[in-house]
Amino acid sequence: MISFSPTEEQKMIVNTVKQFATDVMRKKYRECDEAGEIPADIINAAWELGLVISCIPEEHGGAGWDHSALTGALLAEELAWGDLSMAMHILAPSLAILPIVEAGTAEQKKKYLPTLCGAKFSTATAAFIEPRYNFDPTEFGTTARKSGGYTLNGEKCYVPLAADAGFILVYAGEGGSNQCFIVDKGTKGLEIGEREKNMGIKALATYELTLKNCKVPAENRLGGSAGCDCKRLANLSRVALAAMAVGVARGSFEFSRDYAKERYAFGEPIAARQAIAFMLADMAIEVDAARLLNWEAAWKLDKKEDATREACLAKMYADNMAMLVTDYGVQVMGGHGYVRDNPVELWFRNGRGFTAFTGMAIV
Amino acid sequence: MIDFELSAEDKAKVEEAHNIAQTLFRPVSRYYDEHEHEEPQELIDTMWNLRGKGFLTGLGVVGALMVEELCWGDAGLYLASPGPGLGGAAVFAAGTQEQWGRFLARFNQGKPKWGAMAMTEPGAGSDTAAIQATAVHDGDYWVLNGEKIFVTMGHRALDLSEGIIVVWATVDKSAGRAGMKSFVVEAGTPGMKVEKLEKKLGIKASDTVTVTFNDCRIPFNNILGKAEVKTKTEGFKGAMATFDVTRPLVAAQALGVTRAALDMLKDELDKQGVKIRYDVPRSKQTALERDFMEMEANWRAAHLLVMRAMWQLQGGTPNALEASMAKAKAGRAATLITQRAVELMGPLGYSRKLLFEKFMRDAKINDIFEGTGQINTLVVARRVLDYTRDQLK
Question: What pLDDT sits at residue A230?
Fold first, then answer.
């Protein structure tokens, strides 16, 4: 039966996250962006919501809920509406948790999942993107060579929280296929570079990584001899990022809409002029359009079907939409949109990033 | 639960619509484009018989999906197919049960019939509140006077069948929009005349006419909704309730033409060994792949917006905002995507040998009728800003 209504449980989760985003994230996002860091109390408060460990089986310390990309998309939108840097920080452990829950061996689950189920936030992460313009997620430049265990070589970037991560999932090409390897903190040959400086997501700590003849034991191949379905993991990531793009864009739409009703020019609110009103209408339509496309992709992933086409279209659409809508947000506000007293310039910088963001979040 | 799966029964209905589009519409699609105003009699009879056997599109999610399929076959022939059409949708949205029986029962019996809607006038298109046609209360009757243009299927509804037409007219010019009411006029009513058969850019298999009303008397209870002029906007609300149904339906027509162009484009590319690689990075994509993906994503986004508006409608949820969002998006997407398909196919796109150029011509109307893209954008803007029409003109 076709329906566009989330379940009661999903509505409850969305409301909880929205409340948190409003009460906590929206109060601090500007300070965090300026300071380049997020206070631990915010991250720990988010941690207590239990969002990222809910899908970990109870025996390994989690809540044992069924994983749903659709539920993940709903909550990722709300978190990103609060603030994108914080959203990516809060969800960073999922970058390790979800692939292990989905594809990990019994031993991998037992060894790694409990390390992420503490009372306070602790993280692991994943290294997906590589620092070149023609990075191709279907053909990683980072390589894994079998030699007893595996030897990893290559460069990665945009690795969230790498410096604090207990272990890192490294995506690499192994022979003809793409696989994922668990690299423990401190493994020889794993070099974590300096913290990256980007146009946006300034409060999120991301790093470059270099893997130089980095040797990991054979049992650290995600999924063991069966390996993992990197395509599916990439699609789950696309859905997460598209949902975040929707959240960021929605924030910009709502703020500039409210501003346009308050701002008077020529004796009436600028929103009363079609030149502005039509931009706002297009923003509203495009935000919804991107969200629905993404829901369909997430829904298909939840059915365990190949959703590469849907996820790629949803991500591409959301990337473009976020650029357009966050740009309009600044444009509607004019000079007031350009100054850092108002949030839309921050959302514009964050919105611009989605075409570059790949594999930096997963739901 | 958010779900995009149809039941097996609904899926079968959509497949049946696709099958009809493919086997009945497509083979004669070009012929009736090139022979404007020629009657596709055989097809009309076939569609009427299918209707008698229960092939009905209806006014919900599945109905919209079926309309999309039929318009994938041919948008003009879909409109030309007998049935209650937009006039019927208006009766359904704003009429009483007694009126449903009196005006809609005919579409399930006897010879083929059509329903039409008459809103636009020479001096009033999207500005429906400026309508000049009048309805004067006279005993047991209303007396209609005025001229209506761009009436889709008016010729077949009124000249070629015992159909109906829903006419918008004012009962009190001084009351402005509140005086606007809709009336059902049956074919053959004295004083009503079809004047002019338009020649159009596309959807040529459908007819578009001018209808004049000259002291045309209709029974008093042919009015849809209440006769009294009460609050400032009540009369117009009836019109708006009609749009909540008809805008997503027309948007579904746009989706069908658009997908037809996309499918044909994909087929032509397939023949040349060109496959769309969805997951390669921007640096490795061809411009053609990128274009195709953007076209497909836009079509699908519009499709989902239409489905959402229809899902709300069938669940009784107010959908005026979402109906206009769907229509604005689908109309624009149809226009841009079908034009791009012509462009991408080069000489094959422009040639009348294939159907790309026809899709482009057929698609364009969807950004015009049932409210232009601009009017629907205006409706969306007013809704998201919570502005009245006085606050946002």
Answer: 96
By Cβ distance, the residue of A277, A293, A309 closest to B381 is A277
Residue % of chain B over a pLDDT of 90: 86
Interface test with B, best of A262, A285, A324 (most B CBs within 10 A): A285
Report pLDDT digits (tens) over A46-86: 999 999 999 999 999 999 999 999 999 999 999 999 999 99
In CATH, the architecture of B235-385 is: Up-down Bundle (1.20)
Are A181 and A79 part of one and the same domain? no
What ipTM is given for this predicted complex?
0.96
- DSSP bridge partners of B183: B167, B223
Q: What share of chain B is helix, strand, coil (3-state, %, to 5)?
A: 55, 15, 30
Answer yes or no: do A292 and A344 share one domain: yes
In tens, the pLDDT along A256-278 reads 999 999 999 999 999 999 999 99
By C-alpha distance, the chain B residue nearest A272 is: B392
The verdict on A295 touching B (C-beta cutoff 8 Å) is: yes
CA angle A356, A361, A363 (to 5 degrees): 135
CB–CB contacts below 8 A, A to B: 135
Would A291 be classed as within a structural domain?
yes
Looking at domain B8-83, which CATH architecture does it have? Orthogonal Bundle (1.10)
Helix (H) or strand (E) holding B88: helix B85-94
The label of the residue with tokens 């997963």 reads: A362
- Residue A161's SS3 state is coil
As a whole number of Å, the end-to-end CA separation of chain A is: 24
Q: Cα(A16)–Cα(A168) distance, rounded to whole angstroms?
A: 30
Residue B173 DSSP symbol: G
Q: Count how many domains chain A has.
A: 3
Element (H, E) at B213: strand B208-219
- Domain limits at A19? 8-116
Residues of A within 8 A of B293 (CB-CB) are 312-313, 316
Q: Are A55 and A75 in contact (CB under 8 A)?
A: no
3-state DSSP assignment of residue B39: coil
Domain B107-231 belongs to what architecture? Beta Barrel (2.40)
CA atoms within 13 A on the CB side of A123: 22
Contact at CB, A309 and B4, closer than 8 angstroms: no
Q: Is the separation of the CB atoms in A244 and A80 below 8 Å?
A: yes
Catalytic amino acids of B?
370
Domain termination site, one of A199, A226, A253: A226
Rounded to whole angstroms, how far apart are CA atoms A18 and A77? Answer: 9
